[in-house]
Amino acid sequence: MSLAELLGEGSMGLGTFNQLDGEMVILDGVCYQLRSDGTVTQPGLDARTPYAVVTNFVPSMRQEVKQTVVRHGISEIIDAMLPSRNYMYAIRITGDFAWVTTRTVERQEKPYPTLVQATDGEDVVRFENVRGVVAGFRTPLFEAAISVAGCHAHFIDDERTRGGHLIDFEMHHGVAEICLGTDLALRLPLTAEFGAADLTPEDLQAQLHKAEHAQH
């Protein structure tokens, strides 16, 4: 799917680009490409994505976070705000961070490696004393076969110059906003590669967890 088409589906989101060429974050209808060195560029509308999750972000829940928290702490705060764990939630956290750690996949070439191989050994980038946005989705466990179950988030600073796939952070103060989702539209590619792919390996969840959450 092209970015021009993707942006017609929602104003906030995350994903990646063809050939795993960096991480994607969409904020207020603008798409950013997060590189492995922590830098950010703004791709053209003809750029394409093999995987993205987007929504029109209209927050229905909001909470100010005044105490210093790390990622695990903010996760507990957000979980306490949710009316149920059975819905999809888009989450946007704007705040002042003592530090943020991220990692970002590098562009791959054919023959493509597995996701675990592509993400293994990624460099961790650390940003100090930064103000920015954590954007992500909290997905119920029953969606594990079609998405990243649990919380999947990316970070970008307020200047839109640094960011990546979120690992952890320490936030001094911030605001958490949550948008509840009840409808899911899934589009699959009509390609020979997708048709022949093995999408149900026995260790699928272990692979996804390692690729999305493991620290290196």
Description of the molecule:
With 216 residues, the chain is of the alpha+beta class. It is built from 5 helices and 11 strands. It has helices at residues 3-6, 71-81, 115-119, 192-196, 204-213; strands at residues 12-16, 23-27, 30-34, 40-41, 52-55, 61-65, 69-70, 88-103, 125-139, 150-157, 163-181. The strands form 2 sheets. Strands 6, 7, 8, 9, 10 and 11 form a 6-stranded antiparallel beta sheet that branches. Strands 4-3-2-1-5 form a 5-stranded antiparallel beta sheet, with no helix packed on it. A hairpin with a 5-residue loop joins strand 10 (150-157) and strand 11. The chain is globular and about 50 Å long. The chain starts with a helix and ends with a helix.
Summarize the amount of helix as a percent range: 10-25%
Number of helices: 5
What is the overall pLDDT average? 91
The outline comes out as globular
Counting helices, strands and paired strands, the structural category is: alpha+beta
Give the radius of gyration. Answer: 17 Å
- Distance linking N and C termini: 31 Å
Oligomeric state of the chains present here: single chain
Number of strands: 11
Explain briefly what this protein structure is.
With 216 residues, the chain is α+β, with helices and mostly antiparallel strands. It has helices at residues 3-6, 71-81, 115-119, 192-196, 204-213; strands at residues 12-16, 23-27, 30-34, 40-41, 52-55, 61-65, 69-70, 88-103, 125-139, 150-157, 163-181.
